[in-house]
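Hey L., structure's done. Input below.
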Amino acid sequence: MSTSNFLTIPLRRTDHIGLTPAISAYIEQSYDQHPGMFKNDIAELERLRNNVVNPEVRTSSATNLTRYFIQLTFLSSKFPADIKVNFVWYGTLGYAASASVSHNDLQFERANVLYNLGAVYSQLGFEENRSTGDGLKRACQAFQLAAGCFEYLKQNVNPEMHMNPPDDMSAATLDVLMYLMLAQAQECFWQKAVLDNIKNSLVARLAHQVSDYYDQALNSAMRTAAIKSEWIHHLTCKKYHFEAAAQYRAASDCLSGGKYGEELARLKAAQDACAQALADAKYVAKAVAEDLKGLQAKLKSDYARAEKDNDMIYLAPVPATSALPAIKAASTVEALVPREVENPMDALQEKYGPPLFAKLVPFAAHQAASIYVDRRDTLVHKLITAKMDALTSQLHDFLTRLGLPGSLQALERPVGLPPSLAAHVEEIRASGGYGALQAAIEDVRNLSTVDSAIYSAVADVLHSERKEDDELRARHGTNNWRRAPSVEAGGELYKQLDKFGGIIKAAAESDEVVRGKFRESENTFRVLSRDLREIEDFLPKSADVARIDPDLELPSSELRQKINEVSKVEYWRRKFIEDVKEKAKNDDVTELILQETARLERLDPLGKIEATQFEKLFTERLKMYDDDKKRVEDEADMQTGLLTDIELANMDFTAALSKSRGHTLSDRERALQTLELGYFNYQELMSNLEEGRKFYNDFSRPLTQFQDECNDFVYSRHVEARELEGDIATQFDRLTLGRTESPLPAPRAQGLPPPVLSNNNVWSPSHGIQFGRRT
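Output:
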């Protein structure tokens, strides 16, 4: 058992890990920069980490931890939290102190380093000579810095972690550590005030604040499983000890002021608080118990003297304890966040060297480039090319409803192929025809199968890990299996799994629609893929129409003029869409993003750059497509007028045609119309299939990255599970071996009097289970 009347925070342990290969590989895979550019930075980072693996209680350890923490803070602005490195740390508090926690999270590493910095400051304060004024000042400062580290960890670092912190780094546990450090810092200040013979009224206020800090630490300890009973006893004892000390100093002030009745009441209150502290004295350090017993003796003699003087001389009424004026606490300490922790960039420039990876483009900049590409492609597709294609489809549907251009072609070319249809056939044959469609469908099917297999494998891995975790939790019990459930620990991964599953399902439905359209027009595609002579033989002939009736010449000529306008519109629209796609392909914002990144880093070198900070740049850049969007709107207006003109021209044409058409003309019209519609369907399907190829090829990259993340998560969970099972087995063995030993008594519930004892202080069965009054 410790001989000190203070507690110190034990350091968390970690293992040596190979940062160099992991970070080099990550830079090579995720950045457009060669890792060789940063070999010195990587080596220095590894050296900094090795320096904090086994820190000792000395100022240089605080310096090493601070230097590494500062560089980790700067790294957070360059790298994401997940850099494919599993950081392993071992707990130090609670009953499973040897349990390790491993996470692929840069912020988890940063949190542990800051925790150890706070622990080192607590130990530096603990080691100070507190019998001198200067030693007390240094100890007080060290404890305040420790409190600041734990407060900063709770408020600023833990929220950045992509996981729930372990029990001994939870918010409640960090509150315990912070208030404990503040209590010990305030106690140093109180001790200095006593050494300096400061007036009793102020010393009482200082002592009352010491008690308050221990009370806050005790309340926080009740909200976490990471605090052992030894610490609970210590906090309880200290709380009541300083409550008694505060009342004692207030009583001494009353004696000086002639308030003899109040003096007696406060001495009685001090004795009561001392008695409560003594209930835990057997479970605390020897120094704490001796301090308490010294105070108890002093209270006993002062109370006897005060009671005798009041009974014989002053005869002052003694107020009830509840009627005493409250002692106003006076806090003289605060949680001091180390300046280097709060302002790391200043520290880098002044003392801790240049920031590592300064020339590495932040990961957010790479994300921003990807986000811009997605947003640009979405804009071009939804607001330009898809809308233009929709207008053209609307035009084709309108012509089909009118039987155009089949009825006009049948009249103009009663035999053979119309020139426009012949050109369409040559275009289809040049692109591969029916065979190319079949091959494209098969390609998309194969790509879909590969991506679906990756998704299924990921889902199986996550579900298997979840099942294993549920089984182990059921086997060992929730009290022993103290780690987050799979869905909670991998919350973002499970959300991503659902998201990817929805995307694959939607893609499969779209693929089936495309295949359905192919089946509907499959025979037409076969015909359009033949040579021209075969297609001519396929078409019905209108041999009875030897020449065009003079009454048909004008309306057919006007209708042909409108149909030719449609062909021109289609041509320029295809050209427009090709130009827009080429424009988007060459739209590279990398240089602009790098310029904006440099500007943001100059404004705040340690600020974490987020992709959202490039929104203004995106908005301005995408304005380059405003003219293209306007072109689509103009095309829609133009098409409305064109459709009206075609409908009027077709009415005149059909009226004249009905007087002189041949009996077989309608069959030829339908055949020509089917082939024309087949051409447009062919173009649409080839476009859809090309989009499908691009989608699955692009989708495979994030899906594969997601698979790697899930595999890393599952691996770390397996390792964690094995270690946790080992810890449970160790605890069980200790429990089994220690059954013959007396367990540590739990602290008695506050406010309950002791059991009634017989005259020889031994409980007798004749007394029953009952409690007597305190004496």
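Confidence is low (pLDDT under 50) at residues 738-775. Residues 665-737 form the longest helix (73 residues).

-- N.
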